[in-house]
Amino acid sequence: MNKQIVVTILKILGETYPEARCALKFGSPYELLVATMLSAQCTDVRVNKVTNELYREFNTPEKMVSLTEEELGKKIKSCGFFRNKSKHILETSRAIIEEHGGKVPDTMEELIKLPGVGRKTADVVLSNAFGIPAIAVDTHVFRVSNRLGIARGNTPHKVEMELMKNIPKNMWSDSHHYLIWHGRKICKSRKPDCGHCPVAPYCEYLNCPEKNEK
DNA sequence: AACTCGGGGCA
DNA sequence: TGCCCAGAGTT
């Protein structure tokens, strides 16, 4: 797709979802890292509810590791996968203390070594906490990009490469959030609400049936 | 590439 | 009740 059209689409989405910058509330890179780890298969609304309470007392790796896995598990259980998540959060907090001087690392290479931190979480932390341009391709970004036709690919990595090629670098981080918001509100996986889609005129899913998602 | 982990919100 | 949700680790 024409790069000009891609930028147009993203600008429209940005105007449609002005609140979409970063839905996870955080006051430090560490808070964002933990919030993002919690957000796996769990909506941002619930994550924010949990972290609002959790961060009152436990908003640094040093304070976090004073909790046992069971104690932390109780506090985060409404985010699901609580055994894995509490274990990973504690292991990651210990690694940050012991191997990174208590600071969240700011490179992809170091971030994905942390237990429970994958490429998506790392991208979110890099772009939102450290201002390093990145596009995390989660299920929403993957689906919406393929449908619209702004980036096609059968793997998240392929879609990421296409997006980075088609979007100006200074729009990468915001675009990630716009695409997620659009995927949740309108371009849903099951029943996309094309009748209310602000970028329907540009959408290949609607206008080019032969290019329909695979 | 497929499978597993998981409670809560909503139809 | 059944389906779905800002993913990552293991096999």
Automatic annotation (TrEMBL):
The keyword rRNA processing does not apply. Residues 38-185 form the HhH-GPD domain. Its cofactor is [4Fe-4S] cluster. Keywords: 4Fe-4S, DNA damage, DNA repair, DNA-binding, Endonuclease, Glycosidase, Hydrolase, Iron, Iron-sulfur, Lyase, Metal-binding, Nuclease. GO terms for molecular function: class I DNA-(apurinic or apyrimidinic site) endonuclease activity. The keyword Cytoplasm does not apply. [4Fe-4S] cluster binds at residues 187, 194, 197, 203. It is an enzyme of class 4 (lyase). Binds 1 [4Fe-4S] cluster. It comes from the Bacteria. Belongs to the Nth/MutY family. HAMAP family: Nth. DNA repair enzyme that has both DNA N-glycosylase activity and AP-lyase activity. The DNA N-glycosylase activity releases various damaged pyrimidines from DNA by cleaving the N-glycosidic bond, leaving an AP (apurinic/apyrimidinic) site. The AP-lyase activity cleaves the phosphodiester bond 3' to the AP site by a beta-elimination, leaving a 3'-terminal unsaturated sugar and a product with a terminal 5'-phosphate. This is Endonuclease III. The gene is nth.
